Amino acid sequence: MAQVNEPMADVRDMFLAHTMPRREFRLLPQLVRDVTPGDLERLETVGAHAEHICLVLHLHHEGEDLLLWPLLVERAGEEAAGIARLMEEHQAAIERAYKEITELLPQWRAAAQHGLRLAGALSTLLTALVEHLALEEKEILPLTERFITAAEWKRLGEHGMAQTPPEALPQALGMGML
Ligand SMILES: [Fe+2]
Q1: What single string gives the DSSP state of each residue in 42-108?
Q2: pTM for this one?
Q3: Ligand 1 geometric centre to CA of 86 (Å)
Q4: Model pLDDT, residue 2
């Protein structure tokens, strides 16, 4: 990458952005298992929360796919290529679990069906997610500081904010601060 005369990305906010999905996906499998049969209010509370957390994660990865990986692969060359392949494998495992969750979640919310399968899919996603986020923080963020400008980095956050329903934004931001 040619020398640029502008500020480079300050990646500290990504550690903040990772804290929330790490914590919430660690809690969700047991939250789902603990819903008492017939407790429709609790079912809806946990179900709506799970849907919200899944959306936040989906938007996070969508933003990185669109706005981060292509630039890193283009600019960091060999340094990014090997890691990017591994990251894609993680993303595929996460996507498989995510797809199963988004299929099961509406059935669980509507009729309390497949709760154990849903909890299992959430646990599977957690395993892949923990590995993925750790690799991203260790290998990708140092490259990002070198190859991505502050303005480009800002677009990543804006992508998530723009795609989140306005009524869900306060909760998403609040959970990110815990
Ligand atoms: Fe990330």
Answers
A1: HHHHHHHHHHHHHHHHHHHHHHHHHHTHHHHHHHHTHHHHHHHHHHHHHHHHHHHHHHHHHHHHHHH
A2: 0.88
A3: 14
A4: 57
